[in-house]
Amino acid sequence: MILLTEYIEPGALAWLRRRIECFYSPNLYTRLSAMSQQLVLAKGLIVRNQTLVTSELLAKMPHLRVVGRLGAGLDNLDRKALAERCIEVVYAPGLNANAVAEACVLYMLAHSRSLLPADRAARAGFWQRTPFTGQELRGRVVGIIGLGAVGNRLATICQALGCQVLTTNHGPYRGIKQVTFNELLAEADFVSVHVPLTPTTKHLIGARELSQMKYSALLINTSRGGVIDEDALFDALQTKQIAGAALDVRRQEPPCAGDRFHGLDNVILTPHLAGWTIEAQRATCQAVVEDVWRVLQGESPLYPAPPIL
């Protein structure tokens, strides 16, 4: 039996159910503690980012052989505990890369063309365009922190739009300028973050880093909320130390009621949807269920999680 604790694309679920018994509920992660019988029986577990796969949960799953992560992030999994039990972990690296990259460009355009304030003004009957004079993306500088699948796709799109792209990654990369971290922060009109959340990347962007950015810069985070120090970012946005931010991910998801960022007019907030397209979800879910099935059949998965460093 396979336990699925969060939303999965119907086609992928149907594919899996034709092969093995599944226990599925899109909100199962909220009541896992009450699922004692299902936990004991489960040979596979498929999750997104809300399910915390801890050593305590694993202790209730004596027959578990594989965990499938419907996405690219692995920070909600206790990788050490899984490795100690020799439980395989499979995931979907890069399969939502185009969707996330396109979302980043959407945030850039919305900011550069004052899309949200112009929409609010037009709805209120204020039909003036001068206050919303925008800037084109052509000729702007985009700094990409983390040149993996998403970062590479974003770089390609930005170059096609006539932007100069900076990265701190070592190349060679065609048309991408390699700079130091400090140089990227100082030169970029847009800083887009694409790194996993690890002990070394937690608060990668804090007060010091924000102080090095242009006052006209936009900070975009579609990776993990903890990569940015939200307290420092709130201060920087409130004082207009930087022009704005686009946050698709947060330190706590969903944010608590009365989230202070709601009161700022220079931040775009979206509910972790950058990679949430029909195409990306179909590809991600199908790849993960097939790999989970491969592992249960004694075969090697196509997308095994990287070893713990």
Q: What is the third-level CATH name, the topology of the largest domain? A: Rossmann fold
In CATH terms, what is the architecture of the largest domain? Answer: 3-Layer(aba) Sandwich
Q: What form results from the Cα inertia axes? A: elongated
Roughly how many Å apart are the termini?
31 Å
Q: Given the structure, what is the number of helices?
A: 11
What is the spatial order of strands in the main beta sheet? Answer: 8-7-6-9-10-11-12
Order of helices and strands: EHEHEHEHEHHEHEEHEHEHEEH
Major beta sheet summary: 7 strands, parallel
**Residue-averaged pLDDT:** 96
Over all CA atoms, what is the radius of gyration?
A: 21 Å
Give the count of structural domains.
2
- Beta strand count: 12
How much helix is in the residues? 25-40%
